[in-house]
Write a structure and sequence with these properties.
The chain has six helices and no strands. By secondary structure, the chain is mainly alpha-helical.
Amino acid sequence: MKNNSKNYVIAVSLVLLTFVMRLVPHFANFTPLFTIGIFSAVFFKNRLYSVLLPIIAMLISDIFLGFYTEVWAIYLSMVVAQLISFDLAKSNKKSLFATANFVAPTIFFILSNFAVWIAWYSHDFIGLSDCYINALPFYGTTVVSTFLYSYLFYGIYKINLKHSLKIQEN
């Protein structure tokens, strides 16, 4: 299989997996959404893939799940989070890869919940703190799922790469 068609299959597979994971019952925000952006930085080393793949997965699944008032803020937060974490993730340094797994959901948490505060809470310090405190459980599951899925995808990628090299040697 040519490299371009292999990359296309991997990209589509990542989007479909994320789409399905958002539709099946799961803990809130426990999906590979940030992972496909981070993994795309590692695998494709392409900023456009890193940003577009999670957005495409969200867009397709939101067609089924429904759109909401703050959808613009959620998508914008995703784009910013993926752009910032891209340079961290594309390096081959494990510590920077781990940092990207923390940075992306953290940026998303800060930006998306700021929009939620503006739309749904009182515009004072109490409203702001209530908003972020109420969002903490979602943040926790997002961080945990990002780490778990990222290391799962990365592990599968490394095993596949090692297997491919053994086949090429023979």
